[in-house]
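Thought: the user asked what Cation diffusion facilitator family transporter looks like in 3D. I have the sequence; next I should run the structure tool and report back without guessing.
Action: structure_tool
Action Input:
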Amino acid sequence: MTSLAERTAVASVAVALAVLALKTAAWWLTGSVALLADALESVVNVAAAAAAFAAVRYASRPADARHPYGHAKAEYFSAVLEGALIVAAAVMILQEAWGAWLQGRGPELSSAALVVATLATAANAGWATLLTRRGRKVRSPALLADARHLWADVVTSAGVLAGVGLVFLTGLVWLDPLLAALTAGNILVSGWRLMRESVGGLMDEAVPEALLARIRAVVSTHAEGALEAHDLRTRHAGRLTFIEFHLVVPGEMKVVDAHAICDRIEAALREELENAVITIHVEPEGKAKATGVPVL
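Observation:
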C-alpha cells in the first residue's frame, strides 16, 4: 500500500504535465518569449515532480543492514536535482530572451492564450497549496521543495501574464524579453534556496534554534532524577529528526531507574516531535558539565 507522500508525489507529476500542456499552448498561440520562459519552467516542474516521487518512494524503505539509519536522506537528492534543472531552464530562458531582444519581435495578441495561461497559473496555485499542506503533514523535504518551486512558478506566471498584457496595451515589444529575463532571475533565486536547504540536510545541519530550544525544554522538564544532560546533538534526515545527548545521573542510581528516566524523556520527545530517533548515553555524576541542560 502506497503512502500519502507517494500518492501526493504521483499526483504532482500529473498536475505538472497538465500545466505544461496548458502553458505550451499559450506560448504556441502567442509566440511570447515570456510565456515560453514560463513553459520551460514547467518542464523543470515535471522533472522535479518525477524526481520527488522517486525520492519519496526510495526514502520510505525501512532501515536495513547497509543503511541502518534508513533511507530518508534520499529526499534531499531530488531537491538538489531540481536546483540543477532550474539552472538549466534559466539558461535556456535567457538565450530565448536575448534572441527576442536582438530581433525586436513581440508576442501576438490572443485572448484565448491568456485564458489558457491563467488557467495553468490557477491550477499551479491550487496544487501548490495542497502540496505544502501535505508536505508539512508528512514532513517530506521533497514534497515541500516541489511546493516552494511551484509557488515561485505561480509568482513568475502572474508577472508574465501582467507583462504580456502590458505589451498588448503599450505596444512596447521589448517588455516581453525583459520579463523573460526577470523570470530567469526569479527561477535562479528559487533554485539556489532549494539547493542551500538540501545541502544543509545532506551535511547533517542542526535543527533550527526554535526547535532546539523546544527539545532542550522537554529534556529539562522530564529528566527528574537525573542531574543534567549535555553534548546535545541534532540533525534532520528527511522526515526523521535525530536527537542524541548524554544524561548524567547519580553514581549510586540503579540501571533500571536510569533506564526509566530515559524512557520518560524519549516518550516526551516523541510526543513533541513526530518521527524522532533518540539516543541517550547515561553517565555517572563525575561526567557532569557546567554547560549542560539543567534538570528542573
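Thought: the tool returned a structure. Summarizing for the user.
Final Answer: Structure for Cation diffusion facilitator family transporter predicted. Strands lie at 228-237, 240-249, 276-284, 293-294. The chain has eight helices and four strands.
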